[in-house]
C-alpha cells in the first residue's frame, strides 16, 4: 500500500473502514510526510534498531519506521484500529502490532524478547492527555532505552527543558532532566494533523543519560519530595513537604534541612535545582513515605 502521510490517503482509509475518532484516546493522525521524514532523521533509526511505537493509529508513522528499522513493535489501545493496521502494514514482515494499553504493557519483557534486552528506541505521536504518565513510566521503569523521540503538546515540550525560577518549571522538568537530555526537534502546526488539535505541537528527543546527573540515596523518595513541592506551587517548601500525605515530615525537620543548605524557610520548590532536591532528600529523615514513583502518580500530578 502507498504511504498514508497525506490528507487524501488518510481520509480514504478512514472511509474504507468507517472509522470514527475517539476523543477518549486523543487521536490526531499525522498527514504530513515532511514532518515524518524529520522525525525519522531526529530519531536516528538504523537497520539494526528495534523500535517501540506507541499509538500507531492507522500506521502512518509505522510505515516510515518499518522502512528503516530491523523491527517495530507498535502498541495500540483502540481495537477498532487493529484491522486497519493489518491492512496498511501488510507489506511489512518486521512489524508486530500489540493491542494493549501502553501503561499496562510489560515493556521490559517485550525488550527482552524482541531485542535480547538491548536498548530500544521509542518513536511516537503520543496521545496528549497521557503524555506525562507514558514518558515517566518509560523513564522510571529502568527499561533499556537509547532514546525517546515523540510528538507532544508544545507547552509540555517546553516544560521538560526549563530551569528553576521559570513559570513552567515543575516536577516534569526535574524528572525528565534527571533521566535524559531533552531537545526540541521542531514545532508542528495543527494543520499537519487529522483532525486538527486545538493546541500547537512539538517533536522532542530525550537522549537517556548513561548515569543520572546527580547522586541521591533514594531516587523514588526524592521524586516524592519533588511532586509534593509542586502540588501547591504557592506554598513554601516547608509547608508543601510537611503537609504531603505519606512523607511524614515535620515543618521543623524541613526547616533545619533547608538551613543546612543555606536556604531560608520561605523558599519555594520552584527555586530549587535538581542538585538541591537531591541534597534535601538525603538530609531529611525517612518516614513511611509511600512509593509514588509510578505512572499513576504522574497522572495525578497532571504533567506539572
What does this structure look like?
The protein is α/β, with parallel strands linked by helices and 304 residues long. The protein has two domains: 7-208, Rossmann fold; 219-301, Helicase, Ruva Protein, domain 3, CATH 1.10.8. Helix content is 39%, strand content 17%. The chain has 13 helices and nine strands. Strands 4-3-2-5-6-9-7 form a seven-stranded mixed beta sheet, with helices on both faces. Strand 3, helix 4 and strand 4 (95-99) form a beta-alpha-beta unit. The radius of gyration is 21 Å and the shape is elongated.
The CATH class of the largest domain, by name, is Alpha Beta
User: Could you spell the SSE succession in H and E letters?
Assistant: HEHEHEHEHEHEHHEEEHHHHH
CATH architecture of the largest domain: 3-Layer(aba) Sandwich
**Low-confidence blocks of residues:** 288-293
The helix content is 25-40%
CATH H-level homologous superfamily name of the largest domain: Vaccinia Virus protein VP39
Rg, alpha carbons: 21 Å
Mean pLDDT: 92
Query: What fold name stands as the CATH topology of the largest domain?
Result: Rossmann fold
Mind summarizing the main beta sheet?
A: 7 strands, mixed
Physical arrangement of strands within the biggest beta sheet: 4-3-2-5-6-9-7
Report the structural category: alpha/beta
Amino acid at each position: 500500500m502507498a504511504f498514508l502521510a497525506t490528507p487524501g490517503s488518510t481520509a480514504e482509509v478512514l472511509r474504507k473502514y468507517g472509522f470514527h475518532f475517539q476523543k477518549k484516546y486523543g487521536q490526531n493522525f499525522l498527514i504530513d510526510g515532511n514532518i515524518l521524514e524529520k522525525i525519522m532523521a531526529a530519531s536516528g533509526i538504523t537497520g539494526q534498531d528495534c523500535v517501540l511505537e506507541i499509538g500507531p493509529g492507522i500506521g502512518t508513522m509505522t510505515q516510515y519506521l518499518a522502512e528503516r528499522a530491523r523491527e517495530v513493535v507498535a502498541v495500540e489501545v483502540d481495537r477498532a484500529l487493529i484491522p486497519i493496521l493489518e491492512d496498511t502494514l501488510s507489506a511489512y514482515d518486521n512489524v508486530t502490532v500489540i493491542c494493549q494499553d501502553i501503561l499496562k504493557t510489560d515493556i521490559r519483557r517485550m525488550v527482552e524478547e524482541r531485542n535480547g534486552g538491548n536498548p530500544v528506541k521509542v518513536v511516537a505521536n503520543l496521545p496528549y492527555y497521557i503524555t506525562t504518565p507514558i514518558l515517566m513510566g518509560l523513564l522510571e521503569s529502568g527499561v533499556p532505552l537509547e532514546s525517546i523521540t515523540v510528538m507532544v503538546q508544545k507547552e509540555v515540550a517546553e516544560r521538560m527543558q526549563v530551569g528553576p525560577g521559570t513559570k513552567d518549571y515543575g516536577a516534569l522538568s526535574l524528572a525528565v532532566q534527571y533521566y535524559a537530555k531533552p531537545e526540541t526537534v521542531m514545532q508542528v502546526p495543527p494543520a499537519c494533523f487529522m483532525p486538527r488539535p486545538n493546541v500547537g505541537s512539538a517533536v522532542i528527543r530525550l537522549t537517556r543519560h548513561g548515569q543520572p546527573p546527580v547522586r541521591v540515596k533514594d531516587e523514588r523518595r526524592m521524586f516524592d519530595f519533588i511532586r509534593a513541592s509542586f502540588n501547591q506551587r504557592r506554598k513554601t517548601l516547608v509547608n508543601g513537604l510537611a503537609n504531603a500525605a505519606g512523607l511524614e515530615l515535620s515543618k521543623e525537620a524541613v526547616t533545619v534541612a533547608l538551613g543546612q543548605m543555606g536556604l531560608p524557610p520561605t523558599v519555594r520548590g520552584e527555586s530549587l535545582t535538581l542538585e538541591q532536591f537531591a541534597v534535601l532528600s538525603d538530609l531529611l529523615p525517612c518516614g513511611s513515605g509511600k512509593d509514588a514513583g509510578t505512572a499513576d502518580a504522574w497522572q495525578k500530578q497532571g504533567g506539572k
